[in-house]
Structures are given as structure tokens and as C-alpha cells.
Amino acid sequence: MNFKYTAIAFALVGTLSACGGSGSEIEEVIAPLLPETGFTFSATELVTNLTDDVIVAGYANLAAQGVALLSATQVLLNSTSQADLTAAQEAWKAARKPWEQGESHIFGPVDSLSIDPHLDSWPLNTTDLQTQLANNSGFDAETIKSWNDDVQGFHTMEYLLFGDGVDDNTKLIAELTTAEREYVIALAEVFRDYTAQLDDAWQVSHNPQDTNALPYADLLKTPGSANNTVYSSELAVIEELINGMIGIVDEVGNGKIADPFGDSLATADTSKVESQYSWNSLTDFADNIQGVRNVYHGEFTGSADKQGIIDFVAAADSALSIRISSEIDDAILKIQAIAGSDDMPFRQAILDESGRERVATAVTALTKLQTSLESDVIPLLSDWNAQ
Predict the structure, then answer these.
(1) Is 40 helix (H, G, I), strand (E, B) or coil?
(2) Helix, strand, coil fractions of the chain, as percent rounded to 5
(3) Global confidence as pTM
(4) 386: which strand partners?
(5) Nearest alpha-carbon partner for 47 in 39, 56, 38, 58
(6) Angle of the 234-251 helix axis to the 353-372 helix axis, nearest 10
């Protein structure tokens, strides 16, 4: 505290009061002289890093995986090799990872262009899916784009590539019908197109209908600029990023896990388990929170250390920044631990007493993390003296 200026401020208060000065007049005079509260932090480097090295890099990877997935499915058209089907399954999983991690920042073009429902609608409409298979052949991408979202995207491809997932997640190449092969190839082409569109929206133009629209990355990095109608300040950007983290933690704990888990073993519902056909559910959930970790630390695991939300939090409270980091890592570990020693898939774990105990432990960790983000991190926005 600067005692010299504080003393001057109190002296002025006395003088103005004696002269009959109003409360507002006193505030106008002394406000600049009082010590600043809260904390200061320059967020420019943080926003630039998260935009370029986490969000844009993640969507570029997703688009590349979309190309690889299409190539892997095209091989299936006339193949009799189980190795080719396995390669396509692995390509599906590889594309799933950047998508699930990207759900920690599911705002902007992924929402405004309806990319999310196009790629990841759940539950899958298996009845309509079987109708399409029975009544169509020679599937093409443009026709599929006109269909409902619940018969395209990740989970339709998953069902065709892995089977129903009830007893296992292994499908034989001989079980793939000609219609299924044609359908999954066309679906992969649609997927390739949408992931490329999402990548372009962040790096070229966020609105395909407006030739003057900026890349969405530029909107995050230039808040408050004359042509930025989305973000008025860096505070608005940081708030968007933190709320994105909170949103996916809430969705994993209170939706993706809690909905099929039910209130008891008797109310558990495996039909609500996302990615159940591939038995990839626990990997999905862990990747969702890994995405939170990416945004919080400003890096993908193993990448160079750059600024993330942790630096914003540390500017206000270093102990809190460390605690949040620990809670994120703990939530990931608790989700992975649901599988137990026998690598139990999530759809089986919710029907097993010991498995349900591990699920409850993971939900507790997610609840703790969500509470910390909402109760301890969000309030920092009000204390931040943005520079």
C-alpha cells in the first residue's frame, strides 16, 4: 500500500466533507488514489497460445484424422482382410481422440455451423439406420448430408465398424455387407468434409456465407477490435474458455456417466452409454477431461510449456492453480480406474457392484473439480484487473 497517497486521500475526504461535498464527488477524487484491489494479468500471450497451439492445432489434427479415416474405410469396399477392418477401427478411434479433447472448447463454429450434431449425435437411431441399409445402395456423401444427424457421424460409423457391442467389440470382416461397406465409406467422406469445414472456420473464415468473415481464431486473438462483434475484451475470451472447461466436466460427470449409471444397479441403462459399440466410452471420458487439462495448461501432453488458464489462476492464487491442476489429473485417473484390473468396459462396469463403486469415485472427483472451477476460478474474473 502507498501510505503517502492514502494519507492524501483521507485528507481530501476530510476537506471535501467539511465543504459539504457529495459522496459521488468524494469517490471521483479519491478513487484514483486508493490502492488497487484484485490482481493484474496480461492475457494476450495466453489467448494466442490457447488459440493457435491447442484449439486450432486440435482441429487441424481432427481434419487430418478425417482424411485418414476415409482412406481406411475405402480399403474395405472389396477387402476380405480382417487387418483392414482393424485398421479402419483404429482410424475411427484416432479421429475420436481430438474430437473428444476438443469438447473442452466446444464454442464458435462447431456450434454455429452445427458441426457437433453432424458429427456426434447420440443416441444412434438404429431403426432408421437399418431402414437406410435395406432401402439404399451406392450411398453418396451429399445424400447422407440431407439425412437426420442420428444416422450419420461418429456413432453410425462406430456401429458399422464394431458391431452392436453387447458381447464384444470385435466384428469380422465377413460380417460387413456390401451396403454397410458403401455406407461407412460415404459416412467417412461426410466426416472428412465436416472436419475440413471446421478447420477452415478457425483458420480461413468462420462464416462460409460471408466472404469478409474473419477466421474464428482471429476473433479470439483480437477482442475489442472494430470488426470483432463476438468478443469485446480479453475478459470475455477467458470467461468463454473457463466456461468451456466447466461445461464438459459437467457433461461427463452429470450426463455421460450419470445418465446410464442411474440411481441404482436396477436403474442402470446400458442403452445410454455413448461409444458403447466400440467399448471406447472410458477413453472418451478421459479424453474429455484431458481436453480440460490441455486448456488449463495451455499444451498437449508432452508439448512445450506455454501459457494456459493455470497462469491466469496463478496470478491470483498460486496455491489454487496447483490444486486445480491436481484435481484435473485426479479426475482423469479416476475415470481410467473404472476399468479395474480386468479392463472392464463402461457398459459392463455400471452393471457390476465393484465397477459401480469405481464409477461413483470418478463422479465424486468430477464433482469436486466442477465445484472448484465454478466456486473458485470463475470469481477470479471479477477480481481481475485486465491490462
Answers:
(1) strand
(2) 70, 0, 30
(3) 0.90
(4) 41
(5) 56
(6) 160
